[in-house]
Amino acid sequence: MARKLDRVAVVRCAGGPAPDRCSEGCIGCGACVAACRKHAIELNENGVAHVDRDACIGCGLCARVCEQHIIDMVPRSQRFQVLCSNHEPGAAARTVCQSSCIACGACERACTSDAIHVTQNLAVMDQETCISCGMCAAKCTRGVIHDAFGIVAKSL
């Protein structure tokens, strides 16, 4: 049995319906699925790659083959991730994906540790500064900030 590394793959795309309209998200090519020897990645109903954190051993093969360069290897302990790579302004982002960051800044205003900022129309999180309070996820109206541990941030 392969040893799990202290990292896990994260696909920076929430993959709403019609993700093929977003030029910066997952294109559903399946290269990551084919590269994963542990079958930890599958394409969801919208054709977007999804990683099973429990099955992922953190080898990074998927990240190396991703044509869009949207798979990151992050520490397993990293609780919150921004699942979007789209840099288009709000209205344009909204038209190409129902799950895109629209750069509204609600997450940035809610963050008490100054760990998340909207840069080039996209929320970017500084994991070194993040205290995992979940306020960014609770305030995100688009559901782009994902809680990897499944703890409901909306209850905050």
From TrEMBL:
SUPFAM superfamilies assigned to the protein according to its UniProt record, in alphabetical order: 4Fe-4S ferredoxins
Statement: the UniProt record of this protein carries the keyword 4Fe-4S: yes
Keywords, in A-Z order: 4Fe-4S, Iron, Iron-sulfur, Metal-binding
Ranges where the 4Fe-4S ferredoxin-type domain occurs: 15-46, 47-76, 92-121, 123-150
InterPro entries documented for this protein: 4Fe4S_Fe-S-bd, 4Fe4S_Fe_S_CS, Fe-S_Ferredoxin
GO molecular function: 4 iron, 4 sulfur cluster binding; metal ion binding
Entry protein name: 4Fe-4S dicluster domain-containing protein
